[in-house]
Amino acid sequence: xxxxxxxxxxxxxxxxxxxxxxxxxxxxxxxxxxxxxxxxxxxxxxxxxxxxxxxxxxxxxxxxxxxxxxxxxxxxxxxxxxxxxxxxxxxxxxxxxxxxxxxxxxxxxxxxxxxxxxxxxxxxxxxxxxxxxxxxxxxxxxxxxxxxxxxxxxxxxxxxxxxxxxxxxxxxxxxxxxxxxxxxxxxxxxxxxxxxxxxxxxxxxxxxxxxxxxxxxxxxxxxxxxxxxxxxxxxxxxxxxxxxxxxxxxxxxxxxxxxxxxxxxxxxxxxxxxxxxxxxxxxxxxxxxxxxxxxxxxxxxxxxxxxxxxxxxxxxxxxxxxxxxxxxxxxxxxxxxxxxxxxxxxxxxxxxxxxxxxxxxxxxxxxxxxxxxxxxxxxxxxxxxxxxxxxxxxxxxxxxxxxxxxxxxxxxxxxxxxxxxxxxxx
Length: 426
Fold this sequence. Notes:
The protein has 19 helices and 7 strands. It is of the alpha+beta class and about 425 residues long.
C-alpha cells in the first residue's frame, strides 16, 4: 500500500488558517516529530508555545512516549521534559479511571440486556495505541440503540451520575442533539456520553441512519490490566474510520479540529484492518466522500500515513471537493457565538429553529440556575437581563464589526456555547 496523492502545501495552508496566531509556529514541528523527524526550533523561545499547542491538540503524551522510548532532544529544556512527563502521567491516571468505569458499565449494560458500542477514545486508547495514557480522553462515548436509551439513562443515574447540564428548553435535546452527557463516577470526576445517533439529532439534516454501523461491531480484546482479554464492543476499523471523518468535519470542522483526531485515523489505518472498498462504498452511500477525504488527506500530510493509490480522488474531487473546502473555510476565523449558533441552527427545520431561538432568549429556570448559579437564589430572574445584554453585545460585534475574541474549543453550535449547552473538546 502506497501513499495517496495530496497537496501538502495547500493542506498546511488550510490548517494554519484554523489555528490561533500563537499555535501556528509549532504545529508543523509537532507533526514532524510525531512522524519520526527531529525536534528543531524554527525560532528562539518557541518551546513554551509549542508545549501548550501540543497539549491543546491532544498529542503531548505522544511526544513524551516518542522521546522516552527514543532520545530526549538536547533542544528540549528540563522544564519542557518535566511538562511532557506530567501531561503523560495525568492522561494515564485519567484514562485508568475511565477504563475501570468502562469495565463496570459494560458488565451492567450486559446484565440489563442493553447493547452498547464504545466510540472514539474509549476504544482507540486500549486497542490501537501502545499505551492507554497516549490518547487523552475527557469522557467515555457509548452508542446505545435509541429504543434502549430510557433504561440506559435509568441505569447510569442509579450509579450516581447526573446530567452534565440542564436543557435550555424541556425535551428539545432529544430532537436536536445526538447524545446526553453525564457526570459521576469516583469523586464525580468522570464523564459518560450516551449516544443514540452518531453525528446529529434526528431533526438535524446532517444525521444518518445508524443501522449500518450497528452491523459493524468488532469485539476487540482489552489490553489494560482491568480490561485484559475482555471483549470491548466497538466499530470495526472500516466503520470507525468513517465515523471519525464525519465527527471531525461535521461536528467540529473549521474551528475545533484537533491533531489527535488525525492521529486516531493513522492508528486505525496502520492496523491494516480497514476494508478500503467497503470504506469507499459506504462513504459515497452516506455522502461523506469529502469528509472522508479530508481526514485521510490530513493523516497523509501530517504523519505520512500510507493510503491506497487513488483513494483520495475516488472519495471526492472536482466541484464536490472544492465546495467542501469552501464551506469549511467559511467556518474558520474570529466568529461570534451568534454566527456559530446560526451555523448549527441552519441544519434544523424552521419550526425547531424558531423554538430554539425563543429558548435562547427565554431559557428554562433550571437552565439559568445551571448556567449562572445565581446567588442568592431569588435573584435568578435578573439573569435574563444579563443574558439579553450578552446576546446584544454579540450582535454588536457583527453589526459594528467589533473584533470578537476567538472562541475556545468548548463553545459551539445549537447544542453548545455560551447561549446553549457546554460541549467538550472531544
